[in-house]
Amino acid sequence: MRFNKSNLRILIPCVALAALFLASLIYGAVRIPVGDVLSILTGTFEGKATWQSIVLQSRLPQAITAVVAGAGLAVSGLMLQTLFRNPLAGPSILGISDGANLGVAIAMIYLSVSSYLSIIASAFIGAGCVLLLIIRFSAKVKSNVMLLIIGIMIGYLASSVISILNYRASADKVHQYVMWGMGDFSGVSLDKLPCFAAVAGSGLLMAVLLIKPLNALLLGETYAANLGINIRRARILILFCTGILAATVTAFCGPVSFIGLAVPHIARLTTGTSNHNRLVPVTILTGACIALLCNLLTILPGSNQVLPLGAITPIICAPVIIYVIVNRRNIHYFN
Amino acid sequence: MPKSFLASCIVCIALLYGCSGRGGGRQSFDRDGTVASSQTINYASGFIIEECDGYTRAILRDPWDTARVRRTYLIVDRSESLPGNLPEGILIRTPIRKAVVYTTTVASLIEEAGCIENICGICETEYVTSKEARGRIGQGLIADIGPSTSPNVEKIVEIEADAIIASPFENSSYGSAEKLGIPIIEAADYMEETPLGRAEWIRFYTLLFGKKEVGDSLFSLTEARYKALKDLARSAGTRPTVMLERKYGGQWVLPAGQSYVATMHSDAGADYIFKDEEGRGVTSLSFETVLDQAVDADFWMLKYNAPAPMTYGDIEAENPRYKAFGPFARHAVYACNTATSTYYDDITLHPDAILADFIHIYHPDLLPDHKLKYYFPLK
């Protein structure tokens, strides 16, 4: 098989993904020798039961969660950037993750609910309400810019209700909410993983099926309409798909910022194209890689302590965004 | 333009630095020669009390920089005239008649010392548990001052408070409350490393309300009971291992090795698994670290805040991996519901009562007739 440049551009993130995934199983707060990790994975390990539990029930689901969540957030960021023709759009901009935050704040602070399943359910309800609201507005408002502004306003409304709830809450409830708000890939256990992967996976599949209308939207709405694309339907489908992805990831992992905003730019930089045929798979792979990398960096080397995920993602992703703003002309955008 | 911008930045930083040095008390934590006698403070490291000529001086150490003085209070009885030789410090005329208290924990201490009539405002009144205080709030004798992070300053002025008792946080100010001219008394008891150190703050609080003897006797009782229980626990033949709290978000936040909670478990004759974690407050560990080190713990003690009692099913639903811990499998998990118990009211002045719960759990034969009050076995 001959390797041309575009094959290589897919192959590199694939290799990086495999390497980072393996590193996530080997490296953690507890030191487990590489040989032992491999024998645990192959089922031939006969040592400490705790190590087996750490690798199979803690590190493995955490790595899979990071892959799915990173891919989902990144591709939803890409779709929104194309839809709004705005390089700074991301899954958090439409207020969907703020909706999830609000759902969780009401559950944790107002209703004093602390079980994991009810937190997921409340995040989903919050995000779903905002998503329905956005889709409803998208039918009324023709301009994408106006829709974006409405999304931002809904986000502000949700944030302000959260502030009021936090203002009146006791210190331990605020603490509980703040901890949730820092994002975390370790919350999805093995038994919940299939549910999370199935919903997020169907969102990813839908994103792949939307490649054609996404490419058409690059040409502008009028051209896209001339190509036979039903603009209204495409817009609703893209919003629905990004909404499902953002809502699922936020519900299971808490708000994970910056990955959805920054990864599409990394994908554009590496592929040098704005064609979604290539951009969507590379974004999915890069999103998964960046999420795994951020997850690895939450563990302080040589220490038992862990850093919150929400503190790591901006460190990795914010420089990318600054680079993009400074070098915007060199990157293929919506043309 | 950039040069002038840079210059103005430097000036601003210099001004801010200059301001931070004032009022905060940059002097070092040592005494001068005007002291007539000083009271013996045996356990608390955060304050000293000195009897001087015509006034009492209380010096509060900065909990975050223990070589520094955070506040110096000059306490003069209302019935006495002000001595002419008063050194620099914050003047408090005692007994305080109308105090605004930011934390319900300190309010409950003041109530126990018999000074509830002297409290005229409390922040976050919804967390007040005592019947009498609730009654006074209902009658309007105690005002709700709002959240402790941003109290209602106009209300403080309206009720004519003559002192504010607040909890200090590192590098934080008290906002506009500082400009009212009302002395702010810092209640840093929660930063003490030992339970008795924390309890000893009652001696400082009661001094402010002219009830020095009451404070001393309350503390002596707690001290005697705590020491007796600690000695009893020392006689136990075994030291069961204990793990604390549970995972929030991505981290397992638990008391650090030098915290007063860690000290209490040690005093109760238990071996706290994370006693070597540095720090006086809390520390954040990953789930796998806790699992690796605490999987075979004998007991698991946790606190939660919920309207209904927590069950094994609840914590399993929260995280099925909790099942891997020995105490879960052996049903040796004990939990304290801070929403329905008086844990936070009692932790300061009655650590002995909480210690008794711990000893009964860890060494049932030592206190066979004790009835659990805070920590109960999970159902």
Can you characterise this structure?
The complex is a heterodimer of chains A (335) and B (379). With 335 residues, chain A is mainly α. Chain A has one domain (5-330): ABC transporter involved in vitamin B12 uptake, BtuC (Orthogonal Bundle), CATH 1.10.3470. Chain A contains 14 helices and no strands. In chain A, helix 8 packs antiparallel against helix 11 (231-253). The model of chain A has no long low-confidence stretch (mean pLDDT 87). By secondary structure, chain B is an alpha/beta fold. Among the domains of chain B are: 23-94, no CATH class; 236-377, 3-Layer(aba) Sandwich (Rossmann fold). Chain B has 13 helices and 18 strands. The A-B interface holds A 28-30, 50-51, 53-54, 57-59, 112, 114-117, 167-168, 170, 172-173, 175-176, 179-187, 189-191, 254, 298-299, 304-306, 308-309 and B 124, 127, 147, 149-150, 248-251, 253, 277, 283-289, 291-292, 295, 304-307, 314, 317-321, 324, 338-339.
Describe the structure in brief.
The complex is a heterodimer of chains A (335) and B (379). Chain A has 335 residues and is mostly helical.
Feature tags:
heterodimer; A: 335 residues; mainly alpha; ABC transporter involved in vitamin B12 uptake, BtuC; B: 379 residues; alpha/beta; Rossmann fold; 5-stranded mixed β-sheet; 5-stranded parallel β-sheet; 18 strands
